[in-house]
Structure formats: C-alpha cells, structure tokens
Amino acid sequence: MLKVENIKVSFDGIQVLDECALEVGEGEIVVLLGPSGCGKSTLLRAVAGLENLETGKILWNEADMTMVPPHKRGFGLMFQNHALFPHRNVEENIDFGLQILQLNRTERQQRVKDLLNMVGLEGFEKREIGGLSGGEAQRVALARSLAPKPRLLMLDEPMASLDRALRDRLLIDISNLLRGLNQAAIYVTHDHDEAFSIADRIAIMHEGRIERIGTPNEVWLDPGSETAAQCIGHENFVILDSSGNCALGKLGSGPGTVLIREDGISVVSESTEIVGEVKSAAFHAGSTFIKVQVGDLELSTSTAMPVKISDQINLEILKTAVVPLR
Length: 326
Prior knowledge:
- By secondary structure, the protein is of the alpha+beta class.
- The chain has 2 domains: 230 residues, Rossmann fold (3-Layer(aba) Sandwich); 89 residues, CATH 2.40.50.140.
- Helix content is 24%, strand content 35%.
- The protein contains 8 helices and 20 strands.
- The strands form 5 sheets. It has a 6-stranded mixed β-sheet, sandwiched between helices. The protein has a 5-stranded antiparallel β-sheet with strand order 15-19-16-17-18, with no helix packed on it. It has a 4-stranded antiparallel β-sheet with strand order 2-1-4-5, covered by helices on one side.
- The longest helix has 17 residues.
- The two termini are 31 Å apart.
C-alpha cells in the first residue's frame, strides 16, 4: 500500500504542495482531480521521486521510499504525451520497459505479445510509432508502462489529447484492464466525468492541498466545500440570510452557503411553492438540461418533461439534496 505523509513541495519559494496526505490500497484506483495548476501532476511526480520534498514521507508497505531513486521504487509512470520513441517500433518501445527485468529475449518477446493482447493491439509488434492513431499510441504507452509489472501505476492526464468518443471507449478499456490485473494506480485528470468513470476514490485538489477525498458517491453527495463542488460539476450554490432563508424558502438554520444538487431538483406538473422561468434548454440523451430563474437565483437541473425557453415551471427540491458547504 502507498502512503503519502504530509508532503510539501515548493518551486522558487512558491508552495506547490502543502501538507498533502494520501493512501492507495492494493488494487485501488485513486484519481487526483482538479484544475490546471492545482498541484496534481506535481504530487504524482513527487510520489515517483521526480520532485524533492521539503517535508513529509513516501511509504510503500510501511517501507520509507522518500530517498529511494525513481528507477528503484517499482512504480510506473504514463505521461500525457505518451513519451514513445519515434525511431523504435511498437515492440521495441514496449521492450524498453522490460529492460529492468532479468528476462531473456524469448521471454521478453512473449511478454510484449501478451501485453499487446491485453491492450487490444494483437499483431502490432512491427508497426512504426508514426503510423499509429492517437488511441493506438495511447494503448502502446499503457502497455509499456505495465511491462515491468509496476506495483503502482501512475497516469498523468492520459486522455487529454483524445476526442471525447475515443476517450470514453479507452477509459472503459483501461478501467477493465487495471481491475483485471488488480493494479494499484493513481490517475490524474481535470475532467470530473473521467474521474467518476474510473475511480474507486477521488481526491479533489485545490491550490496544492487535497480539499476532499472519498468514493465517487461520497464526494458527489457531500463535496464539503464550494471549490470541491465546482470541481465535480455542481452549479447550484445558494447564499442564505441570517435566518437560513433565500428565494426558495427556508433551507437552513442560519447564514451560509448551501449546495442544491442538480439531481435533487425535479420539474413537476402540479403546482408548488417554487415557480421559475426557463432561461435555457438543451436536449441530450433523453433529457433536457435547463437553467431556471427563481427570483434572484438561477438553478440548473434536467428533466424528461417537454419544456422550452420562457416556460413557467414548478419545481420540487429534496431536503436531502441541500448540502451545507464550508
């Protein structure tokens, strides 16, 4: 098991990581989620041994890895740009990742063949890197990262350069592959849909700190802070007055900010106390995503009911969907 204990990293006097703590269990996929510049890639590089720590420790099964050179940690790292060698073919690229294993050439060739089968590229051994599609190059990079059988695999924004349709297909394949291998992994992304698709747990980062960590369901239901809530795609933030009131009625016992989860707002046909005007509507995959003006508030939700811009609609809000934020 990986344990990151309160590490700090600074560049030119600027704090990039501040007291970051993280654990990754056997076979667990932990996603580091956050906007560009929040420190997630630096945390990944720190675990890999590519950044110097001011304070803190990196442990693997309680053994201190903090001063162990990167190539002796037994960790694999897959970069956003694949980092494939253009002058070597597919087999030679994957074989490069096998150099640290004491295997003869026949054994290495078999390992390459097995890896290509795993990632869906059977028979690609002699293909040139320049002739691969983006998705194929991604699979070769994954195979090379898995070649030495790392005890921890780290993937840094692996889908960033791919279009959405290809990204969705590859994400399913990578998730199934990692789980089939019982491979512990840290996966970095800025895309919350990607994070929810693959994670066992999500660590939301902001300005060098981990704001919230939990299972996808835990994080979705209670993100904890407005920053974390925005990061995972929530939009409905409501400021309450000293009595806990707002344009929607009484939502709390005192002043503060609450999140109203989109899945807790329903459009209903019967009359309710909350009536709003549809300001925008976009149909997608069987639902209409709408923004509704209620007094001075704009709420986002979706509905299967037929609605259009300027319609007056009735809303119901589940009490359990109102989440206090710190």
